[in-house]
């Protein structure tokens, strides 16, 4: 919590918004003692600013400065009180509904929805007519009219959190509902609570000023809203007495501005991805690469590629002058410890790098075509039809609300595929090809196991018959038995369809069993590239040897029967025939 506060203070938006708001709070607290009585008639009406009355006088002859300063107190007090109450009521109702579910949820959600469809303004007017006047009336009216939106937001958040493992763990541990709501759910919504509070305060100030301006507040009180109400009534606009309404208007605008800045600062603080990088790295210019660019027998040629991320502490080079070639139909393995830049390189092939990253050097040639120089439109056409990708987490790579057939249709239609019927036919064919039942075309992702989803991911990647498939740790999330079946299937399909594979994994033994050639990436540098056989027996680079020695089955004594041990390590033994037999 203290760390969060410290970071909030370091942020520019938070600093500016916070200081403005703090200034107004101090003004509201001590200001009224420093100025004259705002209701006293002290001078001629409609007097422009003068030495006696720095902000001039109102249409009735009161001091505008005093009215502006004193008005801050009630306006901000009501604003923050309503902001807090609306957040509290909304959070309690929403979280209770979302967490308890069933009948409680039905009843509370129905109530919430009823409140949402009642227009706020008439409700406020009717309520206002029955309540005794005074600041509390405004608080009650605005809370009544505003809590329902919050309940909806908090309910959605509670529903999302309810399914998480830590809540299940708390239930298993025997914690009470009240404790789970206050100790497990609420702390996880801290940022939502904070940004809701700021947003609700903004709503409260705006709605309060609006109601009072219409004369629906307590017109005898001194608030920013009634200031504007009297300015209107006393014909400030007709007489062009701008000094009567501009100070109050400016204050309202500034408070709104500071609250908006704060809420955006909270968003960025709790979601670092929203923060803009200082400036993106400069992409490589299309320089001719002098080194011999092989044209025949090479499908993908990566020439001296460097990739940099822009971070707060400056550019950081994550891929450093990597060159490699992949032949048609080849399985090229890319190994290296986590963080060595494997995914970054894989994503770069499809130009899927995040905005903070750029290829700062080198070229990527596919079939002789410069991928780094393709236009956005050409790139869209290129992706998936020439190079496709299987993502590590099939759980999140599939859209949970679309049936499998629809996901195939989306992909096929994006590349000029024809009818939905044709897409579904292709989907059945592809599902069969990866060893799934064609009827699954109507299934939703949540109905499949992890292994089945990853098969669907592979089927989708192959749907447009690409020449290269980038597989980024496609089996890391799966158990070894499923992993084995899946890889067997990939090798079979590769033999049949003839695509090349860039297989990315930290599991070197797996690669040695699967790949034709393997490249070892260490801290962004490709330190060694060789055939799987040679790497197994005489790896040259110390880092490769280190990687190999970290897998006990791959010691030097295993040289006699390396493949067998390798496969044993990866629990691939039964697949050995399929893997080796099919490939060599
Ligand atoms: P691997 O796939 O080999 O595990 P990655 O390619 O995902 O590695 O990451 C390589 C390096 O890039 C890591 O050191 C990581 O810290 C850095 N990195 C990844 N994403 C970003 C980012 N958005 N900003 C800065 N650095 C990043
Ligand atoms: Mg990775």
UniProtKB/TrEMBL annotation:
Segments traversing the membrane: 14-35, 76-100, 107-130, 211-230, 242-262
SMART domains documented for this protein: AAA
Subcellular location as annotated: Cell inner membrane; Cell membrane
Disulfide bond in keyword set: no
Molecular functions per Gene Ontology: ATP binding; ATP hydrolysis activity
Topology class, membrane: Peripheral membrane protein; Multi-pass membrane protein
SUPFAM superfamilies named among the record's database cross-references: MetI-like, P-loop containing nucleoside triphosphate hydrolases
Full protein name: ABC-type dipeptide/oligopeptide/nickel transport system, ATPase component
Organism: Myxococcus fulvus
């Amino acid at each position: 919590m203290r760390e969060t506060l410290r970071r909030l203070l370091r942020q520019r938006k938070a600093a500016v918004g916070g200081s403005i708001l703090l200034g107004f709070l101090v003004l509201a607290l001590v200001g009224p003692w420093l100025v004259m009585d705002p209701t006293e008639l002290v001078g001629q009406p409609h007097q422009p600013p003068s030495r006696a009355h720095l902000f001039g006088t109102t249409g009735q002859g009161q001091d505008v400065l005093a009215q502006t300063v004193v008005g801050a107190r009630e306006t901000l007090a009501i604003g923050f009180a309503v902001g807090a109450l609306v957040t509290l009521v909304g959070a309690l109702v929403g979280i209770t509904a979302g967490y308890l579910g069933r009948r409680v949820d039905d009843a509370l959600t129905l109530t919430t929805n009823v409140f949402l469809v009642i227009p706020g303004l008439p409700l406020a007017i009717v309520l206002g007519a029955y309540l005794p006047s005074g600041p509390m009336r405004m608080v009650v009216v605005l809370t009544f009219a505003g809590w329902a939106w919050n309940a909806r937001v908090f309910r959605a958040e509670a529903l999302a959190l309810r399914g998480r493992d830590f809540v299940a763990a708390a239930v298993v541990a025997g914690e009470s509902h009240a404790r789970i709501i206050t100790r497990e759910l609420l702390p996880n919504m801290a940022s939502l609570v904070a940004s809701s509070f700021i947003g609700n305060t903004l709503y409260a100030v705006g709605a309060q000023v609006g109601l009072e301006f219409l004369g629906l507040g307590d017109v005898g009180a001194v608030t920013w809203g009634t200031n504007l109400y009297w300015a209107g009534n006393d014909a400030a606009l007709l007489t062009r007495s701008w000094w009567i309404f501009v100070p109050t208007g400016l204050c309202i605008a500034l408070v709104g501005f500071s609250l908006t800045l704060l809420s955006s600062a909270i968003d960025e603080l709790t979601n670092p991805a929203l923060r803009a990088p200082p400036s993106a790295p400069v992409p490589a210019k299309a320089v001719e690469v002098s080194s011999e660019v092989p044209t025949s027998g090479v499908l993908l040629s990566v020439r001296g590629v460097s990739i940099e991320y822009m971070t707060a502490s400056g550019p950081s080079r994550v891929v450093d002058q990597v060159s490699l070639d992949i032949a048609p139909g080849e399985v090229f393995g890319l190994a290296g410890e986590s963080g060595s830049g494997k995914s970054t390189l894989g994503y770069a092939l499809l130009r899927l790098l995040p905005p903070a990253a750029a290829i700062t050097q080198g070229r990527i040639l596919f079939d002789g075509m410069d991928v780094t120089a393709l236009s956005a439109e050409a790139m869209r056409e290129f992706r998936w039809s020439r190079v496709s990708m299987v993502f590590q987490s099939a759980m999140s790579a599939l859209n949970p609300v679309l049936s499998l057939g629809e996901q195939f249709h989306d992909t096929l239609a994006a590349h000029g595929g024809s009818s939905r019927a044709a897409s579904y036919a292709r989907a059945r064919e592809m599902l069969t090809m990866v060893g799934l039942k064609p009827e699954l075309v109507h299934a939703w992702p949540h109905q499949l196991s992890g292994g089945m989803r990853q098969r669907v991911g592979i089927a989708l990647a192959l749907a447009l018959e690409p020449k290269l498939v980038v597989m980024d740790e496609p089996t890391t999330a799966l158990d070894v038995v499923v992993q084995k079946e899946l890889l067997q299937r990939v090798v079979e399909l590769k033999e049949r369809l003839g695509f090349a594979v860039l297989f990315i994994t930290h599991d070197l033994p797996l690669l040695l069993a699967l790949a034709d050639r393997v490249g070892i990436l260490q801290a962004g540098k490709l330190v060694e590239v060789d055939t799987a056989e040679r790497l197994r027996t005489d790896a040259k680079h110390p880092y490769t040897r280190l990687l190999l020695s970290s897998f006990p089955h791959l010691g030097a004594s295993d040289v006699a029967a390396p493949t067998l041990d390798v496969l044993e390590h990866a629990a691939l033994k039964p697949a050995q025939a399929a893997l080796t037999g099919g490939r060599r």
